[in-house]
Amino acid sequence: MSGVTLEEIKKAREIDLLSYLQEQEPEEIVSLGHGNYTTRTHDSLKISNGAWMWFSRGFGGYSALDYLVKVREIDFVEAVKILNRQIPAYKSVPCNYRLKEKEKKLLLPERNDSQNRVIRYLCGRGIDREIIQYCVDRHMIYEEKIYGNAVFVGYDEENRPRYAAFRATGGVRILGEAAGSDKRYCFKLLNPISTELHLFESAIDLLSYATIEKLKGNDWRKESLVSLAGVYRPKSDGSSKIPVALQKVLAENERMQTVYLHFDNDAPGRIAAVGIENSLRGIVKVSNEPPPYGKDYNDYLCSVLGIMRGEERKNERKNGKER
User: Fold this and answer.
1) Domain covering 6-83: architecture
2) What architecture is the 116-313 domain classified under in CATH?
3) What letter does residue 157 receive in the DSSP assignment?
4) pLDDT single digits (tens) 52-74
5) The whole model's pTM is what?
6) In terms of C-beta density within 10 A (0-12 exposed, 13-18 middle, 19 or more buried), how is residue 291 classed?
């Protein structure tokens, strides 16, 4: 490459970000404890075990070279020269990467006076009545007035609704998101002192997992559970875009040490889990734990409780096993 040799590039790539900052910009380092660090300029950029991740922007790296090029936006050749001490290091300059986004206006479906249909629907899928009522009382789940759909709501730090997913409670498969939904605030149950984060593709799977924990005699309120409202297809290098809801939770909860991926037992779910696992490697510990049975965690819950899902009943009627 013009201006630098392959040997100089190799040497530059061997320098980790923490070592670079300790030598060149010690004033940038902020210790979070337990070997984890952030920077004074970007508090959502976390450094751990030789790797770094900028959660508010959804990307990371494994070296100081990655940092200089991706975060500081320094020309690659110049960055290599800096790390080889051929030119002075760039000192940190105040900058604002937190782009101000126009806040979306969430159009929530009208709430019904009665929640009986939604409660009956969720109980029919095996979800524990106490967990349902907990969410209903906090307006995290409610029954839509006109069609009787189940609505799952996500709130921001000021307890304002910012996200809503809906699904039909009848036999027809209808689901989607309310207009103006912000995926950063997906449906979730967070415990502020938890060090473990459990991720799901849907709110139903999240509630199913909480029910399974209760059946095991565990306190589901101690868990931090987040529904991602779908998953991304990985990039060609095997990594995946980190879902914005996950970025936000990790950036704002420094205690998180382990992320559990409970995605579906189908091709998209398995591929997405591997992609996110690759993207988070070196940042937090990741455990890939799909449901032990069935397509998703609600399938697994129903099998534990002996509940026959609608598709199974349909197949049995088709095969003449049900009158």
Assistant:
1) Alpha-Beta Complex (3.90)
2) 3-Layer(aba) Sandwich (3.40)
3) T
4) 888 777 778 888 888 998 888 88
5) 0.70
6) buried
